[in-house]
Specification:
Layout lengths: L1 E6 L4 H32 L5 H14 L1 H4 L3 H21 L13 E4 L5 E3 L2 E6 L3 E6 L9 E9 L2 E8 L14 E3 L5 E3 L4 E2 L7 H12 L5 H25 L2
Antiparallel strand pairs: 1-7, 2-6, 3-4, 4-5, 6-7, 8-9, 9-10
């Protein structure tokens, strides 16, 4: 499986609907986590994701705000919670409640995109239309799952595709020693220098956030700017690795 990421083109109403849906996903995740905790305390037995799917069906029947959205997208929060529980039982780390803005993605299973001319698109019930510019990295037949992720600099559509692995360089093995002073030293004598991160602006934004009043609109805006800068540093570092 391989993931291809595309920056999505959204209208203003779609942006608003996406924010509303992600907040609903956060509330659904927290409610599902609380339900699992309460059930175990009372009965000593946990509940499965399928039990919570049934509860979601009942909620959708009674609450129009939930029935406005696609059910497979809503199940994404409960599936994420189920994976967190499985990770807890295998490796440790109990799932935590999500604070505001901490849940920024969902999976749209069972929804197929449309490819036309130079653009791909997918319409999700209750949210709107997501469009992105196509390239030749993947075809429509390879797509198995669509994931929508909201980053500080925009919304991205991730296409999870099933592709055949490419095996290259099996006859030219090389050893890699990852270091501290240098990024890596190869067994053939070549060296990959360490990247020096310019985080001056990041530190300035961190100080502004620290001085801002908690809960204020000004602080929320500064946190958004800090998130954008941190994401820019991440992208630059990734591009440096793949250069």
């Amino acid at each position: 499986m391989r993931t291809y990421s595309y920056k999505a083109l959204l209208s203003t109403p779609t942006h608003a609907n996406l924010d509303k849906f992600l907040e609903q996903q956060r509330q659904l995740y927290n409610a599902g986590l609380q339900e699992r905790i309460d059930c175990y305390k009372k009965t000593g037995v946990g509940i499965s994701a399928y039990d919570q799917y049934k509860s979601l069906t009942e909620i959708r029947r009674d609450d129009p705000e939930f029935s406005d959205f696609h059910v497979s997208c809503q199940r994404s929060a409960l599936l994420r919670l189920d994976k967190s529980y499985k990770h807890f039982f295998s490796r440790g780390g109990f799932p935590r409640f999500k604070s505001y803005g901490r849940l920024r993605s969902f999976e749209a299973s069972g929804i197929k995109p449309t490819f036309k001319d130079k653009y791909g698109s997918v319409k999700i019930k209750g949210i709107g239309l997501f469009r992105w510019r196509l390239d030749e990295r993947c075809s429509k037949d390879q797509i198995k799952l669509i994931r929508v992720v909201k980053y500080p600099n925009g919304v991205y559509v991730n296409l999870i595709c099933e592709v055949e692995p490419e095996l290259k360089g099996l006859d030219n093995a090389i050893g890699i020693d990852v270091g501290v002073k240098e990024r890596a030293i190869l067994s053939d004598g070549s060296m990959i220098p360490k990247r020096v991160v310019d985080d001056k602006r990041k530190k300035q934004l961190q100080r502004k956030v620290a001085r801002a009043k908690k809960g204020s609109t000004s602080r929320r805006k500064k946190v958004v700017e800090l998130g954008k800068e941190c994401y820019r540093i991440t992208i630059r570092n990734r591009n440096e690795l793949h250069a």
